[in-house]
Amino acid sequence: MPALISRMRRFGTTIFAEMSALAREHDAINLGQGFPDTDGPSEVLAAAVAGIESGDNQYPPGRGVPELLDAIAAHQEHYYGLRYDPATEILVTVGATEALSASLLALCEPGDEVIAFEPFYDVYDAAITLAGATLVPVRLEAPAFTFDPAALEAAVTERTKVILLNTPHNPTGHVFAPEELRQIADVAVRHDLVVITDEVYEHLTFDGREHAPIATLPGMRERSILISSGGKTFATTGWKVGWVCASPELVTAVTTVKQFLTFVGPAPMQRGIGAGLRLPDARIAEIRDGLQRQRDVLVEALEGTGMHVHVPEGGYFIVADVAPLGVTSAIDFCRELPERVGVTAVPLSVFYRDTTGVETLVRFAFSKRIEVLEKAAGRLAALGTSS
After folding, report:
1. Is residue 375 a contact partner of residue 29, using CB atoms and an 8 Å limit?
2. Could you tell me which residue ranges the Aminotransferase class I/classII large domain spans (predicted)?
3. How far apart are CA 178 and CA 375, in angstroms?
4. At 199, is the secondary structure helix, strand, or coil?
5. 9-37, pLDDT tens digit by residue?
6. CA distance 353 to 136
7. Which domains, from first to last, does the chain contain?
8. In whole angstroms, what separates CA 113 from the centre of its chain?
9. Stretch among 3-7, 227-231, 285-289, 366-370 having the lowest mean pLDDT
10. Which pLDDT score is estimated for 385?
């Protein structure tokens, strides 16, 4: 690809595109990509439709539709006790991906370093590379997918600018515990680092766990860029409505970059997500509990094959070890799975720089209707009989 700048040449077609193509070829159930197969809450959809029908179809204000900015501020205070000024401390973005990219581009100079917990969502590596910075991984060790505090401390150098934190975590499903957040906050404060937090699964935590933004810890609000979106919670991933909450100085920096990326996002969809953020607690709990039931269906199916399953604490994904099936390569397993049983998954190794020790780990998405997951379970049962 001679037209592409050198630092981006290692980013080609993703494994998700490859697996999705195999799913279409073999009419397989696609558990490789994390998007729902249902519509979002009716209140959310109706608010977006009302925006379109009322003629709200031109450029919205640069920082976001006022109704959504107010809803984000109210949401942060209601759930976490965090107060953000809608006029100066909140920015609406075209999904969390733009929020992440704009934040990294705004904060990082060439040569700066960004610490990220490995495995990591592939956008992190690409966005850090776009900024000319260097990703420094700190490994989350299976089976609990927790990190060694000494490894985090050792990763900090004089060039470190940012710690990138994702909780609930994609792809492992780990919800960072209070002690882990305190350890990260301690490093950030002592070394004067900014923490960019990807919290798109914030309402999708299971078995009584609760999400806590690191910005709630002492000394962290002023050095945290909190990023989230409505796509995962409200099953509207195609709307691409995200946001940034941070101090005025940080939000202004991110806005300066963001305005030259997409300028603004669709106003009607912003109104829809604003309605979603105002839903009663019981409706949010209903969404979470429904997803937990979906998780349990797939966990049972995967365990029934003989795989070792890491039961996720939050998010959309299950990590399973296929070594008990006699598999030595998750990549080969995933490439053969659509034709073999009619189900698609992705190897966890694509989320790592160092793939040592994860050669047989596979990620499955459970953000699908119960009946689809039950159909997938019937197909996956063939793995147990053939292993």
Report:
1. yes
2. 27-380
3. 38
4. coil
5. 988 877 888 888 999 999 999 999 888 99
6. 10
7. 6-40+282-386 (3.90.1150.10), 42-280 (3.40.640.10)
8. 21
9. 3-7
10. 67
Note the pLDDT tens digit of each residue in 75-134.
999 999 999 999 999 999 999 999 999 999 999 999 999 999 999 998 999 999 999 999
* Tokens matching residue 201: 């699964």
Residue 119 token pair? 């495995």
What phi and psi values does residue 165 have, to the nearest 5 degrees? -120, 130
Average pLDDT over residues 208-222: 97
Can you say how many angstroms the Cα of residue 174 is from the centroid of all Cα atoms in its chain?
12
pTM for the model: 0.95
| Parallel, antiparallel or unpaired: strands 134-139 and 113-118 | parallel
Would you say residue 377 has pLDDT above 60?
yes
Phi, psi of 362, deg, nearest 5: -130, 145
| CB burial of residue 177 (10 Å; 0-12, 13-18, 19+) | middle
* Of the candidates 119, 172, 118, the residue with the CA atom closest to the CA atom of residue 143: 172
CA distance 138 to 152: 6
Mean pLDDT value across residues 280-284 = 97
* Structure tokens that stand for 338 in this block: 């659509």
DSSP 221-262: GGGEEEEEESTTTTT-GGG--EEEE--HHHHHHHHHHHTTTT
Coil, helix or strand at residue 304: helix
